[in-house]
Amino acid sequence: MIDLATARNDNEHLALTLLKSMEDGTLVETMQEICTEDFLWANSGLPTLHGQQAILEHMASGGFAQHLPLLKTMASFSADVLEIASFREFVYTERIDHHWDAAGRDLMTPVISGVMEIRDGKVCALKDYYDTECYEQEPTAPDPAHATA
Q: Is 0.90 surpassed by the pTM of this model?
């Protein structure tokens, strides 16, 4: 789970706030508040989304599950931030993302090197780099701590 208290400066706080919003289910509201209108979202092997409007339309049409069927049953998300560092307008994270279904099975668990760019106090880009082998991952055994059903 994301701990905002680990941020050492405003840029790291913004980056962690965006990631935490994915855990909390408040991504849309948070994106509109802390990201630029031309916010770019890039993931390895998936279409790069340019601008908040494109992201909203993508989410409304099924999000990344339309490209990765294993995500169709995703019920929640969490991330383990292993490392965070920042330099000037960039925030770098090493993390493990978890995509949980209602039974608490982890559907996809990429180990990610992520880069967020900050412009004028807002996140203008989120670029995540990882091995796309995770797209073929078998779900884990159910973890009751992450079950929602």
A: yes
